[in-house]
Design brief:
Distance between the termini: 28 Å
Strand order of the largest sheet: 6-7-5-8
Structural class: alpha+beta
Number of strands: 8
CATH topology of the largest domain: Alpha-Beta Plaits
CATH architecture of the largest domain: 2-Layer Sandwich
Radius of gyration: 21 Å
Shape: elongated
Oligomer: single chain
Mean pLDDT: 77
CATH class of the largest domain: Alpha Beta
Length: 164
């Protein structure tokens, strides 16, 4: 089964009409379609692009709508969607510390910890966590933003639990 999407600009639509889903195209043709979509965007055209291939959406879209059960449940820029979700933060300390107090920081969950490091999940911005870490001997801090796919899956988390 082939999905289709349409390029809805006057010039490109006349030249290309509907384009088959990118996953069925060879890499050279795929890059050509990407170029055409970017060209349409630069010409201030509105392009409706439907895909379940999140990496394509992340690469091409300026705005994303997440549809669940036929209803738009979220619409935003991809970067905003990824910032709305939980981030993972790994903290390494210069010496052994009791990092359990980080669990008291609003929005922070301690996922894993030992004397010299902690893996945290942080919902929302990092301001409160950074302020709490200022009192500790931090050697290194890594923050990993969630992907657009993880943000998308958050809207279907209840469905996955029900399926088990």
């Amino acid at each position: 089964m082939h999905e289709e999407f349409a390029i809805r600009t006057q010039g490109l639509c006349k030249s290309y009409g509907k384009v088959r889903a990118l996953r069925g195209l060879d890499p050279l043709m795929q890059h050509e379609v990407y170029r055409l979509l970017r060209e349409a965007r630069q010409a201030s055209a509105t392009v409706f692009f439907s895909s379940h291939v999140i990496s394509e959406v992340e690469m091409l879209a300026e705005r994303v709508a997440i549809i669940r059960a036929g209803v738009i449940v979220e619409e935003a820029e991809p970067s905003r969607l990824t910032q709305m979700t939980v981030r993972r933060v790994r903290v390494r300390f210069q010496r052994a510390v009791d990092s359990s107090r980080l669990a008291a920081v609003p929005g922070v969950t301690v996922v894993e910890r030992n004397d010299v490091s902690a893996m945290l999940q942080v919902e929302g911005d990092l301001d409160a966590l950074i302020k709490a870490l200022a009192a500790l001997p931090v050697r290194d801090l890594e923050s990993e933003h969630t992907s657009l796919e993880e943000a998308f899956l958050r809207y279907y988390a209840g469905d996955r639990k029900e399926a088990r």
